[in-house]
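Re: the 96-residue chain
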Amino acid sequence: TMAQPDSKEVSIDLAQLEAAARDQPQRPECWEAFKVWKYCTTPVHQMKNYYIYGEVDPCASEWEDLKLCLSLKLTPPPEAAVCLHHHQSSALSMLD
């Protein structure tokens, strides 16, 4: 028969896992980026953009944001946090 683990050991392990999870950067949720990109590709948005600006919206920035979000989901959390910070700082520098 298998030895039953001591309940105190299990709770310590769970506490350690919970502490490690709190310390890990959270991975982004991509639904919002998907919804923004999807809206950009709708005929309503495209017709409005064509009417106002005389051209269709290529939705390039929305697509790049969605691709970044999805790639961050596949990247280990510490590396994803660095990548996201770099992306946000480069986006802010473009506004200057």
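The longest helix spans residues 77-95.
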